[in-house]
Amino acid sequence: MNEMRELLREAGVVPVLSIADPARAVPLAEALLAGGLRHLEITFRTPAALDALRAIVDAVPAAQAGAGTVTTAAQADAAGAAGARFLVGPGFSADVARRAADLGLPYLPGVATASEIMAAGAHGLDCLKFFPAGPMGGIATLKALAGPFPDVVFCPTGGIDGTNAADYLALSNVLAVGGSWPAPADLVAAGDFDEITARARAAKALVGGPCEPH
Ligand code: 3PG
Question: What pLDDT was estimated at residue 208?
Fold first, then answer.
């Protein structure tokens, strides 16, 4: 079993987190866990990201904390050293793919076109982030890609929320969806963890029961 597939199948919904204040990291992870979401993508978009990742890894062992927005091998190294369980990128990088393999970390690169799927496939990657899902054609594009790439599965991310997540999750080539809607940066900054738990619970409910193997 491909480790990234297993992780996504278990997750169903992956909250994409942008944490500006590392002091928010642990209560945020706990709030998401309380709502049933434990696979967390901590994006490397804020100066606090690495500290936030480290804090969650240390204090919330039940969380599966990964690093997002990983675009370089150096970031992959830093994420691995901080204890990341997986790496996510907005696009595909052969450098990151090689480093992730060296580190033994599952890597979910972003793709939006057939050529990018083929480039990732050349590195043995067939479990991919479809990004940015909404602007790149959403469900219609995922259905079209299933024809030439019947063995590729996706975690669409970008433009997904509680109104459309279930439609994405119903696709046979979608294992999970990602998005900021369970824990948007403004709620994190405001420390509104009750609302985040409620959103996580609602998001997890969209996933339903155990997924059938794809
Ligand atoms: C991102 O890159 O910001 C993520 O894909 C989240 O996108 P979203 O805010 O549209 O969910």
Answer: 66
Q: In the chain, how many domains are there? A: 1
* Catalytic sites, residue numbers: 41, 129
Taking only the tens place, the pLDDT of each residue in 74-117 is: 999 999 999 999 999 999 999 999 999 999 999 999 999 999 99
| Positive or negative torsion for Cα 83, 191, 30, 70 | negative
Q: Which two tokens stand for residue 172?
A: 């046979």
Give the global pTM: 0.95
Q: Which of 5, 35, 19 has its CA nearest to residue 180? A: 19
Give the Cα separation of 51 and 105 in Å (integer). Answer: 19
User: Does 212 reside within a domain?
Assistant: no
Q: What is the whole-number distance in angstroms between the Cα of residue 194 and the centre of ligand 1?
A: 21
Which residue minimizes the CA distance to atom 1 of ligand 1? 158
Within-domain flag for 170: yes
